[in-house]
Design goal:
Elements (H helix, E strand, L loop, with lengths): L1 E2 L23 E2 L2 H10 L40 H7 L5 H16 L3 H10 L16 E2 L5 E5 L4 H6 L6 H12 L8 E4 L13 H18 L3 E5 L1 H8 L5 H4 L3 E6 L2 E8 L2 H6 L4 H17 L11
Parallel strand pairs: 4-5, 4-6, 6-8
Antiparallel strand pairs: 1-2, 3-5, 7-8
Helix pairs in contact: 3-7
The chain binds uracil.
Length: 305
Amino acid sequence: MGLRAWTGQPNGSRGDDPSLMLGVMSVPMTPLDTLAWLLESGADESIGDTPIDRFTVRPAPPPAIAAATPAAAPVYRAPAASALKSASPLPTQADSDTIASAQALAAAATTLAELKAALEGFEGSALKQNCTSTVFADGNPASRILFIGEAPGAEEDRQGLPFVGRAGKLLDRMMAAINLDRSSAYITNVLNWRPPANRDPSPEEAAICLPFLRRHIELTNPGIIILLGAVAARHVLGYTEGIMKLRGRWLEYRVGDVMVPVMATLHPAYLLRQPAHKKLAWRDLQAAEQKMITLGLLEKHGSIG
Ligand code: URA
């Protein structure tokens, strides 16, 4: 088993720029590497006194939401927030009240600073109680190039910024490969608080954050959105189709009267575990780069034909 750098681009296809030639070296893992990997994966706390042999535990039945998977469609038009709200499994009145309060707070924010303050003052998410930080965003909100991930991890919670851990370092390299960085793109997450042990957010936890995310998107007025991973694709577009089916297709998200092009791709944390799939993400990013150039969001560089 080894750790690898971002090697999404086919060897040599990006010219001779040494900064892009990040190598395919396989490094043997020491016990310290393994510990660092576990920490980065979110396994940084004990959840029980006795070990559990997961091989003998029967798997839980799949969540009901899986049955509602829509048929594949070439272009998905995101439903209005109100439609998503009624389509989401919202079991309790308390959840509905919390979401209504999140919607009211988010709608009242007229600037990103107000939205950030509203989130920091919001006490409706149980996740927040276990977190150090409310993780809002990083990068250039005027860039109109918006990356949306899943949720903060341990390092993000510590620093209060999205994508600053190991997956974030890979995201930085992925962005650099298409001539972007945090001064020329903007990054946020579906969730603003870290779920314990980096587990997937529940539909209710995501539904509570979504009004803030939708307002966040409106206020940044993106010309293109890149969704990182299945959780972002599911919650931003309301799609339950797997990321392998969604990635690489042009999807759309409505902001006001405008349909914004959306590319869903593989999450950098997934790519750290499955480096062989970096080539798929690389294809998605190349398509996104071309679209950004066509839309005038990004200057054409010599290495892309
Ligand atoms: N993964 C995410 O989806 N977001 C982060 O901010 C960090 C890791």
